[in-house]
């Protein structure tokens, strides 16, 4: 009975398409196989065979029906959490119909183009033999090395991914941030230092003692969120600044309320750049966010008279001051210096990478907001692989890895303010001395930069003019800067100075692992969206016939339109269900980090537009050849993405009439 029900639902969708040749029949087959296999393996097998028989019986004579080449993958077992909310709010389909009816900008299936039609021949380019035939057809004669390439390309979380083509042999200097770039931290141990320290400082400001009992949970949060400090809300928005997911403290905000607050009460689209909106662009912000959410909950529950007289914005400002003070007064740094192995992650690839760059003639520099004392502690541990004694600490042997070191840089101001002063740091005792910066370099005459650095290559403060002068580099595009802060490291260096950028994402391996596990579910979702788009186009055709007045059976056509609307709602409901499951497998509250709904999240949009490269850790840059050319995977607008599929038929204007 269950199998017949599933077959019937899919078959109704097929019959609805009978009057118009389209590509969605194969889509329905794949969707039904996927859903039936998830329901019951035995039912799925019987139902799939029966559905296949029905399809071939009804549509065997249809012209223009193209099937997508390539084998089917068995859906993996999914263990991710499923949303329990009954409302279609957070991960409902796009609200504006124009966006909803557009397909994703990438092909649904990698197998869509495995077969190529060239010079009258069909070539399966997915196999080594097919690749050889393709090269022969193109009269392209390559070495035997090509034949040794694997049939399946391996993608790893240690790969470096490219948004903008970059030739490493054109890069004269590579710069690195330290925190969460060269120095990765153990989580949640490192965050716990700031969390506990901030709790104690809040208590001294008059906050209730219950704050000391707060428990930190970094898994609730993802990067790319926006904190609305005025309302006590946390937002995830898409590239068009539409709020897709919203929480007030730890409580989800309904779809209607979310739209009422952030869409319908504005005369213009909100920019989310006002001072009351804070971007969670760095992992350091997780502590702020969790403390804020806990205090919001306490305030809303009326558990503290003290909080009754505080606005949400005032609470957040208190949190920010307390957390910032923890980074300055030794609460964090002293503890890391006492036991660095508990908080810092060793990476054997760091020295290999830095030495590799310098051996290839590329300069290396360190540019960090951390001050000298903490930088010295962290870098000595990473260099020696252990905590060192005071004498070894003062030798600072790690400095040999860099041509230039700048601490206390005060990014992003370092990248935008040309008037910041440069100080020289004495590595022995951390004392500072004034410099005349650019004037001093110019006064030293020929090779002034080299002479200036010969007096010491460790500095505090300054600005990008000093750095480029000391490196003797004029063009910003000859510098690659590697950092984890999307705004201070990537966006500003790229937009203001034209530096090339590499964004570091420690979360990337988990995102990639989940995406790979959920690949079949995502394919089913995209095929359902494609099917919905086909229905809409078919309905448009029926409306045109009705409007011409040439159809005698207008009543019958209107019934078909009503059926299409009913099917559209069913698909929309199923899409919302599957999309919730898909996104919740990444994070049960916020979903996939790079995606909001079916669009790029704002975080994903900024990564795509401002990070030339991105990868999971800085040392991955040491794996490719020094002369490596990083190439983009190519971008398609929706019309090209639709035509890319072998299951799409192209009609010229006159054929559509």
TrEMBL record:
Keyword Signal on entry: no
Pfam families: 5_nucleotid (PF05761)
Region spans: Disordered: 38-108
GO MF annotation terms: 5'-nucleotidase activity; metal ion binding
Domain of life: Eukaryota
Gene3D superfamilies: HAD superfamily/HAD-like
InterPro entries listed in its UniProt record: HAD-like_sf, HAD-SF_hydro_IG_5-nucl, HAD_sf
Family stated for the protein in its record: Belongs to the 5'(3')-deoxyribonucleotidase family.
Protein name: 5'-nucleotidase
Organism annotation: Thalassiosira oceanica
Source lineage: Eukaryota, Sar, Stramenopiles, Ochrophyta, Bacillariophyta
